[in-house]
Design brief:
- By secondary structure, the protein is an alpha+beta fold.
- About 20% of the residues lie in helices and about 40% in strands.
- It is built from six helices and 15 strands.
- The strands form four sheets. It has a five-stranded antiparallel β-sheet with strand order 3-6-1-15-10, with no helix packed on it.
- The longest helix has 15 residues, at about 140-150.
- The protein is globular.
- The two termini are about 15 Å apart.
């Protein structure tokens, strides 16, 4: 693969519709792509309707967060994130030589990414599977686990929810990208490989056409310490490359959810979301 930057324009639109007016709401949005070695965010904008004040901060995990409240009656909330980002390809070659002793030496400083969360907790079955998947090096172990997850978890949209934990996903034998990511994290942390949950966007085409706008995807993958922090995709198995746009990192989905919010009132709500991606160059 040629190491050539791509530029994407991304629009992420989410609409909450309430069946009766709510008194107020408070929300946090995590939709701004990160600046890092393999990508640079050129510009971004978060638009909110009703129009309200926004404030921005960086959370504990290093994610850009836009927070706002709507202190008035409303029956609809629309959030549109637009961003332009340059992405590049990462090579795993320089990170594949770390030993288990190297991992042990950093385990204390990376303890947050070795402990299990509710989403990544291991039952007896996952614990036994993890024991059988350890290989000679951490890098080989990550690749072995991702291959196992690919075979064990059939990709099936709608089969799980954001609340489904790794053990439940394995019992079902099906799920989506966040489920495969949670299972991979459960196994890696059980073995002792520090690993993070990554959220972002994925262009669906390997070779996107220039100026062609397509339906994109919110996506989840992992970052594991195998000599350095290195990204792996449990759903696609190929290189994390130009078509991956990283937005947030944390311990599991809960740390990086694109929208978190609460509202006052007895109304039920429906949510519609869409992502469009255009490769500009």
């Amino acid at each position: 693969m040629i190491d050539t930057p791509w530029r994407f324009e991304i629009e992420h639109r989410t609409v909450f519709t309430y069946d009766e007016q709510v008194r107020s709401s408070y929300n946090e949005v995590r939709m701004i792509p990160l600046n890092m070695d393999r990508q640079v965010t050129m510009q971004y904008e978060i638009s909110i309707s009703p129009n309200v004040n926004q404030y921005q901060y960086v959370d504990y995990w290093g994610t850009q967060v836009v927070a706002f409240d709507v202190p008035k009656l409303h029956d609809k909330l629309e959030i549109i994130s637009k961003s332009s980002v340059d992405t590049n390809w990462q090579s795993k070659g320089s990170s594949s030589g770390a030993s288990w002793a190297d991992v042990a030496n950093v385990s204390e400083e990376m303890a947050e990414f070795l402990f299990h969360t509710k989403h990544t907790s291991c039952d007896d079955r996952l614990t036994e599977i993890a024991r059988t998947l350890r290989r000679d090096t951490p890098f080989e172990t990550v690749e072995t686990i991702l291959d196992w997850v690919d075979k064990a978890i059939t990709y099936e949209p709608g089969s799980t929810s954001v609340h489904t934990c790794a053990a439940e996903v394995l019992a079902k034998g099906k799920g989506v990208c966040q489920d495969r990511t949670h299972v991979a994290l459960a196994l890696l942390r059980q073995i002792g490989v520090p690993s993070k949950y990554v959220s972002g966007y994925l262009h669906p085409h390997l070779e996107p056409g220039i100026s062609e706008t397509v339906l994109g995807q919110s996506h989840a993958w992992i970052e594991s310490w195998v000599g350095c922090w290195t990204e792996f995709d449990p759903t696609n198995l190929g290189e994390v490359a130009q078509r991956h746009v990283m937005v947030a990192k944390g311990r599991d989905y809960y740390d990086v959810a694109p929208i978190k919010g609460i509202y006052g009132g007895n109304s039920n709500n429906t949510m519609e979301t869409s992502v469009s991606v255009t490769r500009l160059r």
